[in-house]
Request: fold
Amino acid sequence: MFGFMEQKSGEFVGVDIGASSIKLVALSRQGKGYSLQAYAVVTLPAAAINDGNIQDSEAVSEAITKALRISGSKAVQAITAVPSSAVITKSIQMNSAYTERDLEDQVRIEADQFIPYPLDEVALDFEVTGPSPLPNLNEIMVVACRKDDVEQREDVITEGGLQCLVVDVDTYTLERAVNFMLPPSEDDAPLVGVVDIGASTLTLHVMRGDTIVYTREQAFGGNELTHSIHSQYGMSLEEVEQALRAGELSQEIHEMLVLPFRSTVVQQVSRALQFFYSSGAHSEVTRLLLAGGVANIEGLAGIIEEEVGVPSLLANPFNDMAVNSKVNRVRLERDASALLKALGMAIRGFEE
Reply:
């Protein structure tokens, strides 16, 4: 949203700067679709990211460099995103007769009325989304973010060895990835829930068609399990993260800590859905997609489906995608649910 691409290349890299890890996805075009050329997941130090803010730029850029090296990708053009919590969005109406230059000036004047920061401290973008129901007006979606948040991400991408072309918004990247993964529905815009279970938060997004219409975040995530294993079994946090990703924890840890945590995840997902249904007049969610690193816990999707009565499946956007022969398919299957946003960022590179 906050960058402009001067040229297209054959390959783009999505770099998802998460609370506990860097997720990198490199895509190229294949016909009308895409081909996964490379990917990597690299754990971040515990204090590197806090509440979506980069606290240790050097550690983050080093992790990006490491992810690029592990992936083997030669791509240099990257897309990343800021968290939606750092972004202000507002739909406004403007006269359809404005030229592009005049429209930009008018949008800045309007934005100054609702953005609580001086405009010289803000990265601002906008898009004409269509005609307004009122005559001679267009609907304009305005997106604004503190420049510091954008520039910080651009800097770590550059220091990591890539060229940052676009800084998007993480919810838009999620929409893009889900729309790529799900075939068009014959139903009348059914509701699809995306449960993103990260290191520190569980977020329920509800999508109608290609747009997120509801979002609620809960302070719960994989860090609770990671720190429990770390404190009770003396493993380093990085060792725990790697063992969880690889499914290599001992049977004792699995039974004593992972299974009880899995039950807690199910309760949290059920709670998130209850909040959604109590928030107003909504249709029922027709299916749940589980995303994020925690989603890969064995048997989680089936237990959630049994508990909430909604078909639930692990998100894997690479099921029907061409994949480079150098990519480890077994590892990709294990990591796919955590790569949804990084995929959406990479796809952004191919959009006009």
